[in-house]
From TrEMBL:
Membrane topology: Multi-pass membrane protein
Composition bias, Polar residues: 1-11
Name of this protein: Transporter
Biased composition (Basic and acidic residues): 12-22
Keywords, alphabetical: Cell membrane, Membrane, Transmembrane, Transmembrane helix
GO CC annotation terms, alphabetical: plasma membrane
Organism name: Loigolactobacillus backii
Localization terms from the record: Cell membrane
PANTHER family: LIPID II FLIPPASE MURJ, PST FAMILY PREDICTED COLANIC ACID TRANSPORTER
InterPro entries: PG_synth_SpoVB, Poly_Biosynth_Transport, Polysacc_synth
Matches recorded under Pfam families: Polysacc_synt (PF01943)
Transmembrane annotation, as ranges: 37-59, 71-95, 116-140, 152-170, 191-212, 218-236, 268-290, 318-338, 359-379, 391-410, 422-440, 446-465, 486-508, 514-534
Positions of region (Disordered): 1-27
Length: 559
């Protein structure tokens, strides 16, 4: 068996031909659309469930709901960062490297990589869980109630690293269904436990909100176990097929476990930083906003925590539904781009990047602008009527476009082995965020952190986009043309939605949850029809989603 050094960055000029398959393989665009559809379905349903539980959850806390929301947000922001550290970016790196080896017909090497990663994830889970548990007092922002909440989130860190690695392995084969379904089951199990324990503590035992929030965050452990069981079932089902691929693989690479783990960690470092990008920006808000806002607004500490939760918890929960669309596309793009990069297919790379950007704009822009249009009834349904909360949700919806764009571009940069540049651009954006944070809070008060985030990640996204264009000569004329059509349709949809919403609220009560639900259904439905018609009429849907959409247009008799 010949030896080959593990390549740190495969050359785009070196083309490695896999064995010819008898069956025709789906195109890169078809894989992208199919994978994005699965991941979007799983992520969206998971996020929607994660938002819907807020309605009964907040109601059970009554007058203490604002403090409970703030406490939950403090715990989860820290947990999110530890979650990325505990997985060490390994799942994304595994998806990327497995796709790389599969493109070389080295399926057995990919399996070896997976087995090595399992051991590493078990160790990382134990270390990160212990670390979070013991440093909780120092991370509590001086709030003693936050300590048990943070510590309850140490337990899921024991499970999630291994669970995430298994998801990454499936994604390396462009098999997104197990990840999507396990994500949905994870959320269902988590919410059932969360609501049941909150009801038991607050309504049956008449306990305090800190205990209820602690159990609500511990629910992440219950969800992780359920998800891992689902992934294990899928793994057993697909193992025989993977074994067959391994037996027939080229097997010309001879890489030691040590070299493999070293390469895995090297590839994982960018995932750690970039996957935690949005969380890092939110942590800047967590440790600065409450300290600084008192210099520009009068109020008590409790008032400042309530302002903080308006954008860090309440609005963030809803806009992350739309951001999850970008996350789904990002997960799909990494193995596809890595595969094309390994094969040296520059034409396919350019087309995939163009298609991914267009698909992102096609979905994300109307979703974000649509959420801004229905911010009033949406916020009322989830949290009760709040004028300031509604304005923050609307503003956050626009910021979500920048968050989503950063997520997709960062994933592209990693899939194309542009790790150092991606990290550099993120650090530049973070520095910009830190520079403008104080003046933005001074100028815009509670909207300041959101504006600072938009500016910082906007700079990062611009630098990433410019780098991709310089290296792969993107078809910007076509992208801009389609973006203009999408923006026009989305703005038209926004105008229709706002007019209808204002008309309905002239005789309906905006403070009523039931009547707000009626307004939301009518306005969102008509908005979707307007945007869908514009996309079909202009044939942009055909260009972005493929020729199958033409059949839908003909059936609807849209010329």
């Amino acid at each position: 068996m010949s030896k080959s050094r593990l390549q740190n960055e495969p050359s785009v000029n070196k083309k490695i031909e896999p064995e010819q398959n008898i069956k025709s393989e789906p195109t890169a665009q078809e894989k992208m659309l199919r994978g994005s559809a699965w991941m979007t379905a799983g992520s969206i349903t998971s996020r929607i469930l994660g938002a819907l539980y807020i309605i009964p959850w907040v109601a059970m806390f009554g007058a203490e709901s604002g403090q409970a929301n703030a406490l939950f947000a403090i715990g989860y922001n820290i947990y999110s960062l530890f979650l990325v550290i505990s997985t060490a970016g390994i799942p994304g790196a595994v998806a990327k490297q497995v796709a790389h080896y599969n493109a070389m017909n080295e399926y057995s090497t990919g399996r070896k990589l997976f087995r090595s990663g399992i051991y590493l994830m078990v160790i990382m889970g134990i270390v990160s869980a212990a670390l979070l548990y013991f440093v909780a007092p120092w991370l509590s922002t001086g709030n003693p109630d936050a300590i048990p909440v943070i510590r309850s989130l140490a337990w899921p860190l024991l499970i999630i690293p291994v669970m995430s690695l298994v998801r990454g392995f499936f994604q390396g084969y462009q098999d997104m269904a197990p990840s999507a379904i396990s994500q949905f089951i994870e959320q269902v199990a988590r919410i059932i436990y969360m609501l049941a324990m909150t009801f038991w503590i607050m309504r049956v035992l008449h306990g305090n909100y800190v205990s209820a929030v602690t159990q609500s965050t511990f629910a992440a452990f219950i969800g992780a176990i359920a998800s891992l069981l689902v992934l294990g079932w899928y793994f057993l089902r697909k193992r025989s097929g993977w074994n067959e691929l391994s037996r027939n693989s080229a097997a010309v690479l001879d890489i030691s476990t040590r070299d493999m783990l070293t390469e895995m960690v090297r590839q994982a470092i960018p995932f750690i930083i970039l996957d935690a990008g949005i969380t890092i920006f939110q942590l800047v808000d967590q440790y600065t906003f409450i300290q600084w806002i008192g210099r520009f607004m009068s109020g008590t500490k409790a008032d400042f925590y309530n302002y903080y939760q308006l954008f860090a918890f309440s609005s963030n929960k809803l806009i992350m539904i739309t951001v999850s669309l970008a996350s789904s596309m990002a997960v799909t793009s990494i193995p596809l781009l890595s595969e094309a990069f390994t094969k040296g297919d520059r034409k396919s790379l350019r087309e995939q990047i163009d298609s991914m950007l267009e698909l992102f704009f096609f979905i994300m822009i109307p979703a974000a602008i649509g959420m801004a249009a229905v911010a009033k009834p949406l916020y009322t349904i989830f949290y009760s009527y709040n004028f300031t909360g509604t304005l923050i949700l609307e503003f956050s919806s626009y910021v979500a476009i920048i968050l989503g764009l950063f997520t997709v571009l960062a994933a592209m940069m990693q899939g194309l082995y542009q790790n150092k540049k991606a990290i550099l651009y993120f650090v530049i954006g973070l520095i910009v965020k830190l520079i403008v944070q104080y003046p933005m809070i001074a100028l815009l008060k509670v909207f300041g952190p959101l504006m600072a985030t938009a500016i910082g990640l906007g700079v990062t996204s611009f630098l990433m986009m410019r780098s991709l264009h310089q290296r792969f000569d993107l078809n910007f004329n076509e992208i801009v043309r389609r973006l203009a059509g999408i923006l026009f349709s989305a703005i038209l949809m926004y105008g229709v939605c706002v007019i209808i919403e204002k008309g309905l609220f002239t005789f309906l009560n905006p403070a009523s949850r039931l009547q707000s639900m009626l307004v939301l259904i009518i306005v969102a439905g008509l908005g979707a029809v307007v945007y869908g018609y514009c996309m079909l009429r202009s044939r942009l849907a055909d260009e972005i989603l493929g020729e199958r959409v033409a059949g839908l247009r003909r059936r609807l008799r849209i010329k």
